[in-house]
Design brief:
Blueprint (H helix, E strand, L loop, with lengths): L17 H11 L12 E14 L3 H13 L16 E8 L5 E13 H14 L2 E12 L6
Antiparallel strand pairs: 1-3, 1-4, 2-3
């Protein structure tokens, strides 16, 4: 940089490949156009939770799942409950190999990460958990008003 603070344009590349030329042009002549406004993103949310539990007693795992969901204020099959805002759809499948149950929970609307951690912790008190996977997204916030 010079004394007055104006940037010195970068030197042209010695090799004139398309990538080098593009980088040199962008460095020497920065764009002054207005960028499109990006979508505002909020906190992380969980849309799906998959848990692998040890054991073959599906009723015990189902009851433990209901208790864990109840601890954060959610109920299974909330579409049957009158006036329910949240809906949790659960699918329990037996593993083909070994004595394991796969519990898949889908949340509508999505829940926060802290609620998901509470569900897993509460379920872990009653059932031995072998694995957990989640599908994360970011909540979209409304656009800023200028």
């Amino acid at each position: 940089m010079t004394r007055r603070g104006t940037p010195v344009p970068p030197q042209p590349p010695w090799v004139w490949g398309p990538t080098e030329v593009r980088e040199w042009i962008r460095g020497a002549y920065p764009s002054k156009r207005h960028r499109a406004q990006s979508v505002r993103e909020g906190p992380e949310i969980i849309t799906r939770l998959r848990i692998v539990a040890e054991g073959s007693d599906a009723e015990q795992v189902r009851a433990a799942t209901e208790n864990a969901l109840d601890s954060v204020g959610l109920t299974l099959w909330a579409s049957e409950v009158e006036g329910a805002r949240h809906r949790v759809v659960a699918v329990l499948r037996r593993s083909l190999v070994g004595e394991r149950l796969h519990v898949s929970l889908r949340f509508t609307p999505p829940i926060h990460v802290s609620s998901c951690k509470q569900i897993v912790a509460r379920l872990g008190e009653e059932v031995r958990i072998l694995g957990v996977s989640i599908r994360e997204e970011r909540a979209r916030l409304p656009a800023k008003r200028h």
